[in-house]
Amino acid sequence: MKGFFKSFEFYAAVALFVFILFFGYLYLYTPNYFKNSSVREFTIKEGETLSHVIDRLYRKGLIRNRGGMKLAAYITGSADKIRAGKFMLHTGSTFFEMLNEFTSGGTGHQTKVTIPEGIWQNKLAGLLHRELKLDSTKIMRLSFDRKFLKSLGLRVKKLEGYLLPDTYFFDDNWDEREVLGKLKYENDKIFKLSRVKKQMQKLNMSRHEILTLASIIDGESNKTSEFKLISAVYHNRLKKGMALQADPTIQYLIRNRRRHNKIYYKDLKINSHYNTYKFAGLPPGPINNPGRDAIFAALFPADVDYLYFVADGKGGHLFASRYSEQVKNVRKYRIWRSKNSRHRVRK
């Protein structure tokens, strides 16, 4: 019996250790999410104590509890290393990431950059050149550099699609690799969410496929309220083996050929797997860098049976479940277009 109790005590101690380790991990590493904002400005005053900083963070809703932040500070020895200054905190940051920012950032020498959702990679390179004085040619080269992509944990042919558009504050001394790494890291956060992982399993779709679909959704409309409906159309078409017939994929193919995005019938014959009029299924990869709304729309489509949509002439779209309805909607749009001398047609 003594041997039994010794074994029991040993396994009980191990179980308790694992329990403490598991919940300690959750306590310290669970991300802190902000309400109604992806970036929040926070200022630490000269001489302010860590305890006071933590209290203010909690009152502002930037951290979920005080104890976790204090414990993380104790583990990292950050209590006496925080710096005064202005900080830009991103939603989803852990206690450790915030403390790292407080101890190594806050110089005040940061540039605010807003990256539009659905931006093409070449446009992103130009934007980062204008705003941060980065080398656009180097950004494009890195976007296809297998070694660099591998360093980011990617096994894809190009970086486009894996960078999350948002408003960022970059230190002035950041280089091309650091900026691209930051944008990819923010995209990573979405796919680490448990509900996202579960939904991907339910859909039987990979991250690459979700980002590819999201990029098409982002390219189709400027109204985020429509994203889930557009997503439903494409999910329904994929299930039926129908061609997606997505105009943004054609615009992707011709983006370096002409200044405008107008599509001609000859463009629909381009022999490329990115041509979703010619080839069924998703194209080989993302056609732009989709935003958070488009990604979640691709993951969680509306529960409707729509298979078609066409522009309504007012910045939105008309949706249909049957082809006969689509024909009527197309006729409505053409009438509106002829009256308003507009020439852009969606499928």
Description:
The strands form three sheets. A two-stranded antiparallel sheet has the order 1-2. A hairpin with a 5-residue loop joins strand 5 and strand 6. The termini are far apart. The longest helix is centred in the N-terminal third of the chain and has 28 residues. The chain has 347 residues and is mainly alpha-helical. Among the domains are: 82 residues, no CATH class; 137 residues, no CATH class. It is elongated, with a radius of gyration of 25 Å. Helix 5 crosses helix 6. The chain has 14 helices and six strands. The C terminus is likely disordered.
Give a nutshell description of this structure:
The chain is mainly alpha-helical.
By secondary-structure content and strand pairing, the structural class works out as mainly alpha
Low-pLDDT runs of 5+ residues are 342-347
Let me know the number of strands.
6
Span of the ends, CA to CA: 78 Å
DSSP strand content: 5-15%
What are the main properties of this structure?
347 residues; mainly alpha; two-stranded antiparallel ribbon; 6 strands; 50% helix; disordered C terminus
Layout of helices and strands:
Elements: H1 2-29, E1 39-44, H2 50-59, H3 66-76, E2 85-90, H4 95-104, E3 110-114, H5 121-132, H6 136-142, H7 146-151, E4 167-171, H8 176-191, H9 194-203, H10 207-220, H11 227-240, H12 247-254, H13 292-299, E5 308-311, E6 317-320, H14 323-340
Antiparallel strand pairs: 1-2, 3-4, 5-6
